Amino acid sequence: MPTFSAPDGTRLAYHVTGEGPPLICLPGGPMQASVYLGDLGGLTARRTLVRLDLRGTGDSATPADVSSYRCDRLVDDVEALYGELGLERADVLAHSAGANLAALFAARHPARVERLVLVTPSVFAVGIPITPEDRLATARLRKGEEWFERAYASLEAVTEGRATPDAWEDIVPFWYGRWDDTARAVHAAEAEQRNDEAAALHASDGAFTPDATRTALAAFPGRVLVLAGETDVAAPPRATAEYAGLFPHAKALVQPGAGHFPWLDDGPRFTAAVEAFLEG
Fold first, then answer.
1. Same structural domain for residues 140 and 233?
2. Which residues face 224 on adjacent strands?
3. 3/12 Cα distance (integer angstroms)
4. Domain count, the chain
5. Nearest Cα to Cα of residue 28 among 236, 203, 163
6. Are the C-beta atoms of residues 85 and 58 closer than 8 Å to each other?
7. Which of 7, 15, 226, 228 is geometrically suited to a Cys-Cys bond with 237, CB 3.0 to 4.6 A?
8. Range of the domain at 138
9. For residue range 242-270, what is the model confidence (pLDDT) as tens digits?
10. Which CATH number belongs to the domain containing residue 259 in this structure?
11. b/e map of 66-90 (b: 16 or more CB within 10 Å)?
12. What number is the average pLDDT over the span 14-21?
């Protein structure tokens, strides 16, 4: 397992799998070890995935200064990874909360990103509003599944600000296109993979300046794919389509039947879409 030194001296780890041109992969969570990305549905057949364990997660060290967990502070870690790999430019894929980091990196270092893939992205960095009805309308696509009634009632409670701890657990099936044994295993592993202290600080005051980021992304020269899951209540397709509209050269794509982890729901469809974009 290779490691390198971040600018502040924190030792960071990354994982290299697959064959082909490199694809830098930024995990979500926020602040979850990159292991959950796996081979991204089989992308390793055509791409060398470089999965970064963000500071304080996975095999990376805990920083001396915990304020460095703030998302904007992590941009220098990604830049240091480029130096470690000897890359001037590279393709970048980011999932969920990792999209916030990718957006800040692309805004600050646009020449470093050849192509950008944002998978079911969080929208905090760019300030796109997601309404309760966005989430509820997306959730209603799952009506008829055996767990739906309880999960939907809990989602209503969450969107109305009256959630209980049980409610948060009840809505978990909405995050997956299929609430099966694979999805249950991925969810069960999440607690050990995520650094809760880091997650709490990730979006703290000063992390995001949406207006400035949107202005920078409006001039981003590279091509962008914003991939949504049709049934993803975390990043509903309406919001991801708006996200794509922030870039001059972007495509919004909705994967049918997919939730927040589209490579788990239909790996071949996911990899075909990403490969077509990267090679097109």
1. no
2. 116, 250
3. 5
4. 2
5. 203
6. no
7. 228
8. 131-175
9. 999 999 999 999 999 999 999 999 999 99
10. 3.40.50.1820
11. eebbbbbbbbebbbbbbebbeeeeb
12. 98
